[in-house]
Write a structure and sequence with these properties.
By secondary structure, the protein is an alpha+beta fold. It has helices at 5-16, 27-32, 54-62, 72-84, 104-110, 157-182, 192-195, 213-223, 230-246, 248-259, 266-276, 283-286, 290-300; strands at 37-39, 43-51, 95-103, 117-120, 141-143, 151-154, 204-212. The model has no long low-confidence stretch (mean pLDDT 92). The chain binds flavin-adenine dinucleotide.
């Protein structure tokens, strides 16, 4: 991640400011504010703003006038109850605004999460930087043979070198052509909104992304999951660390019930009951398909 000296100065200036407020603040988030945390080769995530804390969740659930007299244990217990029983709206009382720099092909997956507010860097108005995501050698994999939507063995030797070379040279060539098409300072240069169509999907874009905690948890549940593509998962993992410092009770409940937990169908639950009685349950007598059984075994073993 290469931040220019000017960008570093802007961040330092923002971080040097202190404002007085009656609003609840969280020290963990105050520490994160504005700092750019590197993700992938040129990307980052930084917190621009946030609203609410664990207390905002319990306050909303109780519709109380202030902090109330409930103990910290009660607060965590209530948050766990809300998470366990899918009471979503109290979590919507907390919001976070992030500045994210990410490759376009990652942005395309990310933008599918419609319940956020987004403002993206305009490549009609501005010129995109010469920055492309080039995977580290350990993340250049062959197509998976078991999962059509995944990757398998790491490519090695000549094949890895050949792929890396294609990615680098195509990216550079596309950018050279982009620059040459828009380079004319006079009237003859191609409009930026048109020139950008020739850029590859590994070029970096940036956006401000604001979302409430309930929908952020939904995003993290899907994108911090092992089935999510590595290149979006690393962003989700970085956000998880920030959220753990922001709303520790809510994050612990999320980790327990959603990230680390598993959902079971009535058929699967029945199999667990039969197993507890000592019955030999197999895929054939389980009532589950092979795929369901594989996932069931994955969850309980
Ligand atoms: C591993 C993985 C693989 C994927 N593969 C594909 C793929 O091959 N092709 C593909 O197209 N997508 C794919 N997706 C994207 C996926 O289908 C969802 O679009 C994405 O995860 C966003 O989820 P969401 O709609 O629940 O989130 P959000 O848009 O944040 O919505 C949250 C919830 O709000 C409600 N909601 C929001 N907007 C509406 C609306 N307009 N109408 C009704 N309800 C709404 C829904 O209940 C929704 O679940 C994949 C996602 C993952 C995690």
């Amino acid at each position: 991640m290469a931040l220019s000296d000017e960008q570093k100065e802007e961040i330092a200036a923002q971080r040097s400011q202190t404002n007085q407020t009656r609003r609840a603040t969280v020290q963990g988030m105050e520490d994160h504010l504005y700092t750019a945390y590197p993700v992938l080769d040129h990307g980052f995530i930084r917190v621009i703003d946030y609203m609410g804390d664990d207390n905002a969740i319990t306050q909303a659930a109780r519709v109380s006038y202030g902090k109330g007299t409930k103990s910290v244990q009660n607060d965590e217990g209530l948050i766990r109850y809300l998470m366990r029983h899918w009471h979503s709206t109290p979590f919507e009382m907390c919001e976070i605004k992030l500045h994210v720099k990410l490759p376009v092909f990652v942005a395309r997956q990310w933008i599918r999460h419609r319940t956020a507010n987004v403002n993206e860097y305009s490549a009609r108005y501005s010129i995109l930087d010469r920055e492309f995501y080039i995977p580290a050698p350990e993340h250049i994999n062959a197509q998976s043979v078991i999962n059509n939507q995944g990757r398998g063995q790491v490519l090695e030797g000549e094949e890895a070198a050949r792929v890396l070379d294609i990615l680098k040279t195509d990216s550079e060539r596309s950018y050279d052509n982009y620059e040459s098409m828009i380079s004319d300072e006079g009237q003859n240069g191609l409009a930026r909104e048109l020139a950008r169509m020739n850029l590859p999907a590994n070029i970096y874009t940036q956006w401000y992304w604001k979302v409430d905690l309930h929908n952020l948890f939904h995003f993290l549940r899907l994108r911090a999951d092992a089935h999510a593509q590595y290149e979006i998962r690393v962003y989700a993992n970085e956000i998880c660390k920030i959220v753990a410092d922001w709303v520790p009770f809510a994050y612990r409940a999320f980790e327990d019930y959603r990230l680390g937990g598993a959902q079971m169908s009535a058929t699967a639950l029945d199999c667990v009951r039969r197993m507890l009685k000592g019955e030999a349950v197999t895929q054939e007598n389980s009532g589950m398909s092979k795929g369901e059984w594989r996932e069931f075994e994955g969850a309980i073993k």
